[in-house]
Design goal:
The complex is a heterodimer of chains A (285) and B (263). Chain A has 14 helices and no strands. With 285 residues, chain A is mainly alpha-helical. In chain A, helix 3 runs antiparallel to helix 8 and helix 8 runs antiparallel to helix 14. Classes of the chains: A mainly alpha (285), B mainly alpha (263). Chain B: Belongs to the binding-protein-dependent transport system permease family.
Chain lengths: 285, 263
C-alpha cells in the first residue's frame, strides 16, 4: 500500500512513479542521449579540421582560442535563446549550442595533443617515408589520442549536464521532466530525472574511458612503469616555468583576456585533461 | 538577422530599462545573487583550500592534507561537472528551503557551483608554492601558521584570483538559471520573452547576459593584474610562459573550469 501511496504523498523517492511513468522516463533519457550524442559527434567532426587549421596556420591559433573562450563565457540559457531565431523551437537549438560549447574544449585538447607529439616521432616517420597524411593518421593522431579523448570525455559530461537547460525550448531530454516537475511540484519526477542525469554523465564518462583504453593499448602497458620516467622527461615548450604566475597554467577555458594564447595551449589544456590519462600522455614528452 | 535588429530596438527602448521589471532592476538582482554567492563560497572554500595545500613544517613535503587535498580537488571538479546546476536548483526549490522564496535555493546552488574552481585553484596554488621558498622559510624557523599565512598565501594569490575569476564568471552565467525557477536576475528577461513569444526580447536578454559575463571577466582580469604586483614582469621573465610544470602533478589536480553556462 505504502508504495502506491507515495505518489499521492508526493515523496521524493517513489517506486510507483518508476513503474507507472517508465515510458516517459525512457523517452526522456533517449532524447537526452540523442541530443548529447549528436552534439558531441558533430563537435568532434568539426573540431578536427579546426584544430588542424589552427595548427597549420599558427596565426589562426590565437584567434581560434580567443573565439572559443568567448563562446564559453556565454551562459547556456542565453546561448539557446540566441540560437532560437536561427533554428526556431527545435532540438537543433540545443544541439547547436552544445556543439559550440564542446568545440571549445575539443579544439584546445586536440591542439595540445598534436603539439605534444614528440618531434622525434615525427622525424622518424618522415624518415621512413611517411607523407603528411600518413604521418597525421598513423603517428600524430594515435599519439594525440589520450589528450583528445580526455577532451571528449569532458565535453560529453558537460554536454549531458547542459542539455537539461534545453527544457526552455522543450528539448532538454531529462531536463523537460525536471522543468515540468518543478511546475507541478512533483518531487519524485524531479529527483528521478536529476539522478538519471548524473548517472548518464558518469556512465558516459566510464564508457569513454573504456573506449580510450581499448584504443590506446600502449598507454596501458606503460602506465605501470611510466611513473618514474615521466618525472625525468625533458621539459617541452610549455613545461618550463615555475608556478609563480600560476595564473596562466591554471587558466580555464573561461578566461579571455590573457595574453599570448600561442604560448598557452599546452598548459591551458591540462586543466581540461585533469585526472585523465591524457594528462599523463602529454606530460611524457 | 532581423531578430537581432529587433533585439537592438528592444534594448534601445528606454522604457525597458526602467521600472520594477526593467533591465536595471534585473541587473541589480543578478549582481546581488552573484555577489552573495561568491562571498559565501570564498569564505567556505579558501581557508579549507589553504589548509589542504599547506606543507606542514614537520613533514618532508607532502603532508596528509596535501594528499587528501589532491584527491578532493580532482573529485570535486569531476563531480561538479556531472551534476546539472539546473537540477540542483529545482530539487532545492522543492525542499523546505524553497518555501521561503527563490533566493535561498539559488544562492545555495550557485555556491555549490562555485566551490570546485575556487577550491581547486586555491589548493593547487598553495600546494605548488615553490618548494625552495617553503624550505627557506622553514629553515628560518617559521611556524606552520607563519608559513601558511606569510609564504603560501601570498604565493598562492595569483591562483586564488584565477579561481575567483573563473568562479565569478561561471556564477554570473549560471545565475541566469534562477529565472527558470521564478527568481530574479537577467534571466528573467529571457524567460519573459519566451512566455510572450517575443523573440526580440529573448535575444536582447541573451545579449545582456553574455555581455555582462564578458564585462565581469574583463573587470576581474584587470583586478587580478592590479592586485598582483610583479605579475607581468615574472611572466616576461618566465620564457615559455608561467605554466605549471606538468610533471609536478601526478594526480592531475588542476584548476579546472567548467563551461560558464554550466547548468
Amino acid at each position: 500500500m505504502s508504495a502506491s501511496n507515495c505518489l499521492t504523498a508526493n515523496a521524493w523517492i517513489c517506486g510507483e512513479y518508476l513503474r507507472t511513468r517508465r515510458e516517459e522516463l525512457v523517452d526522456a533519457t533517449l532524447q537526452h542521449i540523442a541530443i548529447t550524442g549528436t552534439a558531441v559527434v558533430l563537435a568532434v567532426l568539426l573540431a578536427f579540421p579546426l584544430a588542424l587549421l589552427a595548427r597549420r596556420y599558427r596565426r589562426l591559433t590565437g584567434t581560434v582560442l580567443t573565439l572559443t573562450t568567448v563562446v564559453y563565457t556565454i551562459p547556456t540559457l542565453a546561448m539557446y535563446a540566441l540560437l532560437l531565431p536561427v533554428f526556431g523551437l527545435s532540438a537543433s537549438v540545443v544541439v547547436c549550442g552544445l556543439v559550440l560549447y564542446s568545440l571549445t574544449i575539443l579544439v584546445r585538447n586536440m591542439l595540445a595533443g598534436l603539439d605534444g607529439v614528440p618531434e622525434d616521432a615525427r622525424e622518424a616517420a618522415r624518415g621512413m617515408g611517411f607523407g603528411p597524411g600518413r604521418l597525421l593518421f598513423r603517428v600524430e593522431l594515435p599519439l594525440a589520442l589520450p589528450a583528445l579523448m580526455a577532451g571528449v570525455r569532458i565535453a560529453t559530461v558537460s554536454a549531458v549536464s547542459l542539455t537539461t537547460v534545453g527544457a526552455i525550448v522543450g528539448n532538454g531530454g531529462l531536463g523537460n521532466l525536471i522543468y515540468s516537475g518543478m511546475d507541478s511540484l512533483f518531487k519524485a519526477q524531479v529527483l528521478t530525472a536529476s539522478v538519471l542525469c548524473v548517472v548518464l554523465a558518469v556512465v558516459a564518462d566510464v564508457l569513454l574511458l573504456v573506449l580510450q583504453r581499448a584504443l590506446t593499448p600502449w598507454a596501458r602497458a606503460r602506465d605501470g612503469g611510466g611513473r618514474g620516467r615521466r618525472r625525468g622527461g625533458a621539459p617541452g615548450p610549455g613545461d618550463g616555468g615555475h608556478p609563480p604566475d600560476g595564473g596562466a597554467g591554471a587558466v580555464p577555458p573561461g578566461s579571455g583576456g590573457d595574453t599570448d594564447p600561442l604560448a598557452k595551449p599546452a598548459g591551458d589544456d591540462r586543466p581540461i585533461a585533469a585526472g585523465a590519462p591524457g594528462a599523463r600522455q602529454e606530460a611524457d614528452r | 538577422m532581423n531578430a537581432f535588429l529587433d533585439a537592438w530596438t528592444w534594448l534601445t527602448t528606454a522604457e525597458h530599462w526602467a521600472g520594477p521589471g526593467g533591465i536595471w532592476t534585473r541587473l541589480g538582482e543578478h549582481l546581488y545573487l552573484t555577489g552573495v554567492s561568491m562571498v559565501i563560497a570564498c569564505l567556505l572554500t579558501l581557508p579549507l583550500a589553504l589548509w589542504l595545500g599547506h606543507t606542514p613544517v614537520a613533514s618532508g613535503g607532502g603532508g596528509r592534507g596535501k594528499r587528501l587535498g589532491s584527491a578532493v580537488a580532482v573529485n570535486i571538479t569531476n563531480a561538479g561537472r556531472a551534476v546539472p546546476t539546473f537540477a540542483v536548483l529545482v530539487v532545492l526549490m522543492l525542499t523546505p528551503l524553497g518555501e521561503g522564496g527563490v533566493t535561498t535555493p539559488t544562492v545555495i546552488a550557485l555556491v555549490l557551483f562555485a566551490l570546485p574552481p575556487l577550491l581547486t585553484n586555491a589548493y593547487v596554488g598553495a600546494a605548488e608554492a615553490d618548494p625552495d621558498v617553503v624550505e627557506a622559510a622553514r629553515g628560518m624557523g617559521m611556524s606552520s601558521r607563519q608559513l601558511m599565512l606569510r609564504i603560501e598565501l601570498p604565493l598562492a594569490f595569483p591562483m586564488i584570483m584565477t579561481g575567483i575569476r573563473t568562479a565569478t564568471v561561471q556564477v554570473v552565467a549560471t545565475a541566469t538559471l534562477a529565472a527558470l525557477v521564478g527568481g530574479g536576475g537577467l534571466g528573467r528577461i529571457i524567460t519573459a520573452g519566451f512566455a510572450n513569444q517575443n523573440t526580440a526580447q529573448v535575444v536582447a536578454g541573451a545579449v545582456l547576459v553574455a555581455a555582462l559575463a564578458l564585462v565581469v571577466e574583463g573587470v576581474l582580469v584587470g583586478a587580478q593584474r592590479l592586485l598582483t604586483p610583479g605579475r607581468r614582469a615574472r611572466v616576461r621573465g618566465g620564457g615559455g610562459g608561467g605554466e605549471l610544470p606538468p610533471e609536478e602533478r601526478e594526480d592531475g589536480a588542476r584548476a579546472v573550469g567548467a563551461p560558464a553556462g554550466a547548468a
